Each structure stands twice: as structure tokens, then as C-alpha cells.
Amino acid sequence: MVQIASFAALATIASLLDVASAVASMPTGTWPTSLGNVTYSAPYVVKAGTVFDGQMKTYERSNVVCTEQAEGGKESAVFLVEPGATLKNVIIGKSQAEGVHCESHDCTIQNVWWDDVCEDALTIKGGSASSVTKVIGGGARSAEDKIIQHNGAGTVSIEGFYAQDVGKLYRSCGSCKTQYQRKVTVTNVYAVNPKVTLVGINKNYDDQATLSNIKIKSSKKADKLKVCTYFQGVTSGEPKQLGNGILPPTCQYAASDIQVSATAC
Question: For a pLDDT cut of 70, what percent of the chain falls above it?
Fold first, then answer.
């Protein structure tokens, strides 16, 4: 007996295939316009294998207040995205603390924008060495520290992302109790006024960062900007900065991959 998949199931599969094949181009630096507001009293869970399309509305929490760099947990997030799930076309508003959590890795975050980052915008936990979380398009602004916090194992792919007035775009956890080798690929990223570094990774855990086609708008000269910074990661205490710049296989890119301008790129 031949079973025919439902229209809804076929639509979900088609949407997932579309995400998998998506290629995000270099951002223009234009922020999206919100098409409405949605408020949750608890984190919204995007179930494994499903797609949540936020239709470019702004999503916030009704009962969470940002306390800047005070460490929170998934209870303070707006969305919890399960493995194999996709969150797309969403604006995360100011009334929240932990943004989006990918608690068990292997998530797709597509065209998601954080209007005012609190502690972190996106936190990625769990997974294995083969896990991959994809950040496709979107952007974030006003992050005192980092946008993407990678605590789990595996790889994070960041493509076509816009970062404005942020400390770091990506940080491999420097002081998690359990540490792993982590990898990050960054391409077609436009950063305006990065304060600390674009990418921070742990050399002693064999982390690897690969960067290509990065545009930075900054009043600093190119040789004064930190693009890929490597640390001595720890399981307690504070990590120690070891250096910055091209150092294969830790920080992999060519000088021509980084374009710096004092005006719009």
C-alpha cells in the first residue's frame, strides 16, 4: 500500500529544503521594519523538524527584564529551538534577556534580527562533534558583549549576517565546565563598529575559525581591529587572551578577506 504524505508534511519538507539550499548575500546595513508585535509569557518552543515563520513580527517576553550581562538561562529566552528545527523571519525585541536558545544544537536560524541584545542573542548548547547550527542572514545590534555564544560541541556557520555596535559576533565558550573543540565559519558578514573582536575562540581546545568576505565599517585602522582573537580557554576562572590575527588552523583567512572602511562598505 502506497502512503501519500499530507500537504502540510510536504510543505514542511519543501521549506526545510529551501532553508538548506539558501545562500545569504552580503547585508546592506538596512534594518527590517516590524510588521506587528507578539508577546509571550514563557519561551516558545520550536519543535524538532518544524519551521516557525515569524512573518517579520517583533517577539518579546511579557515577564522578563534585561539585566545586561547577568547570566540567565533558557527560561528567560523568547524562543527555544529544538534540533532539526528552523526559526525564521523574526525580530527579537528589547523586552527579553536570553533571546534565542538552541539547547541541543543542529538548529537553523534564518533571517532573525535582534533589536537590542541583552546577555546574548543566540546561545548554542549540547550536540556532538558532527553537529552544525546555521545562522543564515539576519542581524543584531547594541550588544555589550557577544551575539552568538557557543557552549556545545560541533560547528556554527554564520552567513550573510549584519552586526552593529557589538562586542563580539561569535565566542566559543571560554570558561564552560565542559569544554570541546569548536569550529565556526563566517562569510558575507558586515560589521559596524565592532568593539572587541569579530570572533573569539580557544586555541588550547583546537578551535578553528574560517573567515571570508568580511566587511567592517570602523574609524579604527585595519591593523588596530581585532578580527579573530584566540584565548587559553578554562573550565573555571577567566580565559586568557593569547593573540589575534591569522594563525592557521586556529584563525584561517587571508588579509584580502577583510575589508575595512570608515564609510559604508
Answer: 89
**CATH number of the 40-261 domain:** 2.160.20.10
In Å, what is the CA distance from 228 to each residue of 2, 68, 244? 53, 24, 6
Tally of CB atoms within 10 A around 4: 7
| pLDDT tens-digit readout, 200-216 | 999 999 999 999 999 99
- Dihedral sign, Cα of residue 144, residue 147, residue 153, residue 155: negative
Phi and psi angles of residue 118, each rounded to the nearest 5 degrees, phi first: -95, -110
The β-bridge partners of 38 are 59
Give domain limits for the chain.
40-261
Name which of 231, 220, 218, 226 is nearest 253 in CA terms: 226
Averaged pLDDT, 227-237: 97
Q: Is the pLDDT of residue 14 over 70?
A: no
